[in-house]
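Fold this sequence, please.
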Amino acid sequence: MAHIIVVGNEKGGAGKSTVSMHVATALARLGHRVGALDLDLRQRSFGRYMENRRAYLDRADIDLPMPDYRELPEIAPDQLAPGENIHDRRIAEAIASLEQDKDFILIDCPGSHTRLSQVAHTLADTLITPLNDSFIDFDLLARHDGASGKILGPSVYSEMVWSARQLRAQAGLKPIDWVVLRNRLGAQQMHNKRKMGDALVNLSRRIGFRVAPGFSERVIFRELFPSGLTLLDLRDVGVTGMNISNVAARQELRDLMAALNLPGVKVDF
């Protein structure tokens, strides 16, 4: 059965689609069979990234590793069983169409609370939560007293993950490996970085996640989206003499893939 990776939080702008594209494409480049779904039916940032990649490869007439991206199937109301939720059926059929011949299925969730996102979290073997390095985003995970630094309790997203873990336990499934990425790190504000780092380590012990390195804030990620390319594609499309920032970004991707510790994955790029 495929190992399911879910990329999610309930706040936009944390870089979920960039992380999703780079993780899925890195796995494909490492020789794994990868399926991909985008549950943000409105914005479809990950889906559009995939479409941009296909269009670029067709225009350039080149062949690069690419995940098998699928849209959620349409379900007619008369196909539903009594009391069946249409969103549950759509994601179930999408997973069923992929899981028999895939090593990994990566699911990108919307930056909001939806039924599809709830269901996806219960399916996650690995949950990746990109988090901007600020206490505004930290509030997604826990309520925090800014004066004392004390954690007052879990926030709504952490409670949803806890519920997903409970449902998986009841079904006899293995626990979710929850990985929080410190993403879009800036070069300045070292004092804030230390405070965020300490707060995340403290919280990780209380609610059970691992902290992993994400991506720094770099122009290259915005430049890659229109062509559907990733950091690992640059040399293949003729980009030579990569600058220091691009080399550092590639190392960040290598560190991220190693930190995920996905089954059967040897990071050798």
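The longest helix spans residues 190-207. Residues 144 and 150 are 6 Å apart (CA to CA).
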